[in-house]
Design goal:
By secondary structure, the protein is α+β, with helices and mostly antiparallel strands. 16% of the residues lie in helices and 42% in strands. Strands 1, 2, 3, 6, 7, 9, 12 and 14 form an eight-stranded mixed sheet that branches. The termini are far apart. Pfam families: 2OG-FeII_Oxy_2. It comes from Kaistella daneshvariae. Keywords: Dioxygenase, Oxidoreductase.
């Protein structure tokens, strides 16, 4: 008997055109997801995120943590930062995601949303130090949240619910043709941690 019933087919492309998005469903049991959530909540190197908006540095209530194969510098939201070396549990999780997806990753961004009032506006993960058209694997822990895509040209909009312990992978031309975001929701009262595994160019 499979661990999860009605498991989606990860080979199905959720996008109608201009990219590839695959949803693997729950890759962790409820117990595994809860234990990992609590571990990261307590032990990750959380910092309030800083972004540049209209030429001003804004500190968000949402918190982030960055980990990588080495202490590489990276640029995120037009601000240069330095990642820290993997926590053992993150390295184990990276290896699991790589086996499932057949992709390679050398860094991960963690986002902590304390409740539904915190979200993320439409954007593309297209920083210059991310390898072009490489896969970005998004693992969700905690509160289930709506995740949206919007085509940059047609404005077509797609919505999905990302469950606790589930994995979604964006690859190919997705970042060039689609925006994605996490809409706020007053109905969500519990926290969510999102991990996005990425392949960054260490020479950039």
């Amino acid at each position: 008997m499979e661990l999860f019933e009605h498991q989606p087919d990860p080979d199905d492309n959720l996008l109608p055109q201009d990219g590839i998005v695959n949803y693997y469903g729950k890759i962790l049991s409820a117990q595994e997801a809860t234990e990992l959530f609590e571990n990261l909540l307590q032990n990750a190197a959380w910092k309030n995120d800083e972004v540049m908006m209209f030429g001003k540095r804004i500190v968000t209530s949402r918190k982030i943590a960055w980990y990588a194969d080495e202490e590489m510098d990276y640029t995120y939201s037009k601000i240069k930062k330095t990642a820290t070396v993997w926590l053992p549990e993150l390295l184990t999780l990276k290896n699991k995601v790589e086996v499932l997806t057949g992709e390679k990753f050398n860094s991960v961004l963690l986002n902590l949303y304390h409740n539904g009032s915190e979200g993320m506006g439409y954007h593309s993960d297209a920083e210059g130090d991310i390898m072009k058209d490489s896969a970005i694997a998004s693992l969700s822990l905690g509160a289930a949240r709506k995740f949206v895509f919007k085509n940059k040209t047609t404005k077509e909009r797609l919505e999905f619910i990302l469950e606790n312990g589930s994995l979604l992978v964006m690859k190919g031309a997705t970042q060039r043709h689609w925006l994605h975001g996490l809409p706020p929701s007053k109905k969500i009262l519990t926290p969510r941690i999102n991990l996005t595994f990425r392949l960054r160019d260490p020479t950039q």
